[in-house]
Protein 1
Amino acid sequence: DLVRYHPTDKAGVLQDRRDHFGGNLSLTYNDPVMLVRGWKHHLFDEWGRPYLDAYNNVPHVGHAHPRIQSVAADQLKRMNSNTRYLHPAQTAFADKILSKLPDHFEVCFFVNSGTEANELALRLARAHTGARGMVTPDHGYHGNTTGTIDISAYKFNKPGGTGQADWVELVEVADDYRGSFKRNDPDRATKFAELVDQAIERLQAKGHGLAGFIAETFPSVGGQIIPPPGYLAAVYDKIRAEGGVCIADEVQTGLGRLGHYYFGFEHQGALPDIVVMGKPIGNGHPLGVLVTTKAIAESFDNGIEFFSTFGGSTLSCRIGKEVLDIVDDENLQDNARVMGARLIDGLATLKQTHACIGDVRGMGLFVGVEIVNPDRTEATQICSYVKNRMRDFRILVGSEGPKDNILKIRPPLTIDTQDVDMILWALNQVLSEVT
Ligand code: PMP
């Protein structure tokens, strides 16, 4: 104890964390960063050094947005309570969300996280169908609770995972770079979708009915994958034909990040029955939202009260609505489209000179760069090197994918031209060290 570090010293915080937190609470970067201030897409460490946040998709409208600070402070001064009392902020938030969705969505549920929204989606699908079985793409992630881990192959299939539940069937993720059907195959969307037929049959052979299908509309932890257009529409047709409910997890893709679309399912020409939102919708305040049809909400209204103490609190509703208003007022969806195109174009140019870039894919500010070995296999170590070197250049990017070889770039939607050019410049430098 005599050699205790000063509590705000990075090494001391790291040591305290190791002493008092679980070992599986992971830290990014070999030399972790400590961040104490933020502004838009910039972060500052304990020395005041700036970092470009090209990774965090939660501060959707930017870190420390003055309008979010102002509504949060205003509401906390007035009062903060739950959905058992009337408040216009609840209905105003619901109206705003529904204004962004097709008319068949009429009912909102407010919870505290993406996990909770997906957990609730499972309950709704089961209440509506009376069945238990779920089909979901491999390598998906939907949350950290018992129920959502069972539908998250990314978790249950890891060493130490609980394994695949009897009522879950996996389909190959619609990855047309590495998967069974490649980009040069014009029928790849249909071929990937047909895999769902066998999954439903396998469930039925085990005596399970079909409750539904859940997928990240663009699989993110699976490696920033953009399914071929029409894939989800074809899958949803098959699921509905067997009586199942189609759940679109838009936690990573929703609210304008894709630039061209407000939600990923629009790109797929698909209409889900349930849409799940999380992460960006509270800009850092814990908030999850599920929207669904009247019919499904009525099946769920089966005599048991639904209540979440904090879900749909006055404060949460004010913050959530403010986030969606800011996206509109600051034209952030448009900015995501323009900046995303600049970034993706630049990355495609880097691909021509750096052999370790196997694939560049993305839409708006949802971008993946697949790092490969000379034989095109997944270059996990090079990807880790690049991610850590980018941190030396004070640019924060992540990595993802089954083999952790896909650089993941998904900054707040406020990012500007110079920031995009800085990412490209630094990446060119770092890649020159490995190719
Ligand atoms: N769905 C997806 C697609 C996610 O990426 C995440 C979080 N990474 C979740 C659900 C779970 O959200 P939360 O961590 O807010 O519970």
Protein 2
Amino acid sequence: MVDPQNRTLTTKQSVIQFSNTMSHTKKIIVFAGPSGVGKSTLANMLIHHSDKCEFSVSATTRPIRLGEQHGQNYYFFSKDEFQSRIENGDFLEWEEVYPGVLYGTLQSEVARITSLGKIAIFDIDVLGAINIKEQFGDEAHLIFVKPESMKALEERLRQRGTDSEEQIQARIARFEKELGYEDKFDQVIVNETGRIDAAKEQVLIIANTYCS
Ligand code: 5GP
């Protein structure tokens, strides 16, 4: 694991730490962090960069948004269906990410990806990520994606325009709690507004380390 005192690394430091300390066989790479921080952008960069990486499509009970497709962005389940799948043991992990809204990783999705010899890429919440680490240990690489400041996150959520003011405040409050789990992650990427190239560099190092 990367030194927990120094997990936010410059690119050069990252290369050294990766080559010195990391096992190169990963089944799962997890991007976790607050909504609006750009973790799906980083996950997509990795997938587009490497044929060896495939996005693990989660299940959710939230309503489908304009432009989303069942089976591509999420598996959109009713609450009843999600509940019966929980009882069936279909999920590797699941969380009530927002009050009354469930999200979860299907065992079948990860089994499908790993049986192809590929690495499953997750975009999930912080508690889900920790749950995955507990099950997979060194086979999972956990990345905490965070903004440069609370203010920056708030501005990005406003600009995204998908949340009400109340939802924005709930997301900020949630992130304040999530920050307490940062030291459980293998790596931290600060995705600074207007500096996507710096975050991309980190993603390319991950691709070269685990997905080549
Ligand atoms: P959104 O509804 O904006 O797509 O996602 C809301 C939050 O749910 C995001 O933080 C996302 O990472 C998280 N999430 C998505 N899929 C899963 C999952 O399978 N498990 C968990 N624990 N969280 C998820």
